[in-house]
Amino acid sequence: MDKEKFLNKVNIEDKSLLLDIYNKAILAEKTGKQLFSSYFCTNNICKVSCELAHFLNLKIDIFGVFKDAERQIIGFNVYDTKDFPIVLVKIDYNSKFVNLEHKDFLGALTSLGIKREKMGDLVLKQNSCYVPIYEDLYEYIYMNLDHIAKVPCRIEKMDLKTQVIPEFNFQEKSIIVSSNRADSIVASLCNISRTKALDLIGASKVFVDYDEVKSKTKEIHRGSIVTIRGYGKFKMDSFIGETVKGRIKILFKKFI
């Protein structure tokens, strides 16, 4: 697989993410060394990276700490996840009057100058946020992150072998649609009209598996991640069945 073909497999503006993976894969294939992506990669990038590794007959592993992780580090010639340069950070806060959200933690981390691609998924549990990061960033975060939205916080490094790793929180949502087209599903997930769903698609606010949806007729399949800016992120879990009139019943899980 040549470089240009690989770079065009995923529709993203920043091709440097794909170029980094391509170069690491080629180097790993030539040297046999254990190499890792420089960024946490979304599932669409992980998928094409597996295709590249298969083409090169190269061992590949992907690790993002959490079950069902959406952002993961890619490793070539890796045989044990303990070798991944990853640390799970737990951010605790203690406040009876403030309920911090995903955007608060993400905003605090990026305000330190840390790029989104250097972090994995954020999982919130009660008064804690768990986030995988590259291990070389831990000391910097530990020394510099002391508040989240003006609320004092405490930083702790989790032991991936001995401590319980949290899982995502989901809210189940069943919808009934005429088809699995993007416009129909977006309208049902957001409880809006088909016209407003088309407006969201036209405004580049709808993504499937992190690729922008440019056509209302795009079909969404089981396991796909649907991100709708302003409404949330949803995973298509399963097809439940059909109504008497032939409409489709689909179960989604919303990330919360």
Question: What does this protein look like?
Answer:
The protein has 256 residues and is an alpha+beta fold. It has three domains: 3-80, 2-Layer Sandwich (Ribosomal Protein S8, Chain: A, domain 1), CATH 3.30.1370.160; 86-157, Alpha-Beta Plaits; 170-255, RNA-binding S4 domain (Structural Genomics Hypothetical 15.5 Kd Protein In mrcA-pckA Intergenic Region, Chain A), CATH 3.10.290.10. The chain is built from seven helices and 15 strands. The chain has helices at residues 3-7, 16-31, 43-55, 102-110, 138-144, 182-190, 194-202, and strands spanning 35-36, 41-42, 60-63, 71-76, 86-93, 123-125, 128-134, 147-148, 151-157, 170-177, 206-208, 211-212, 225-228, 232-242, 248-255. A hairpin with a 3-residue loop joins strand 13 and strand 14 (232-242). The longest helix has 16 residues, at 16-31. The mean pLDDT is 93. GO terms for molecular function: RNA binding. It holds the Pfam family YlmH_RBD.
In short:
This is Ribosome-associated protein quality control protein P2 RNA-binding domain-containing protein. With 256 residues, the protein is an alpha+beta fold. 27% of the residues lie in helices and 30% in strands.
Give the arrangement of secondary structure elements.
Elements: H1 3-7, H2 16-31, E1 35-36, E2 41-42, H3 43-55, E3 60-63, E4 71-76, E5 86-93, H4 102-110, E6 123-125, E7 128-134, H5 138-144, E8 147-148, E9 151-157, E10 170-177, H6 182-190, H7 194-202, E11 206-208, E12 211-212, E13 225-228, E14 232-242, E15 248-255
Antiparallel strand pairs: 1-4, 2-4, 3-4, 5-7, 5-9, 6-7, 8-9, 10-15, 11-12, 11-13, 13-14, 14-15
Helix pairs in contact: 2-3, 6-7
